[in-house]
Amino acid sequence: MLETVETEPLFASDQLDLLRDALGEEGLSVMLLELPEAAGRSLGAIQAALDAGNLDETRKAAHVLKGFSSSLGAARLASMARSIELDLDSVAAIAARMPALAATVEATIAELARRAPGAQG
Length: 121
Description:
Helix content is 79%, strand content 0%. The protein has helices spanning 2-5, 13-32, 35-51, 55-71, 75-86, 91-115. The mean pLDDT is 90. The longest helix is centred in the C-terminal third of the chain and has 25 residues, at 91-115.
């Protein structure tokens, strides 16, 4: 499952199109500008919970990341967070995925910056 997640597109075009239709181009841009900071906070929360050895809090932090990523159309990031929340059964297993999660956040932010200049955090 995790290998499949890493091949997903960074952004779901259909979700972005729905958001664009609902919010307009400017509204979508404003919303997407929140992603870098929110992703950074979530990564920090996941890492802090891992450092404390708290699996439940790690999963809760991954759930938050999954929710906002999904709503912003960041498909790969949402899937990776979902996998951490629901599929991995130990702090060690999640810790082993942190480099891939951090790389996905970086790739998502880079793609966002390409799509919407000024969106880097």
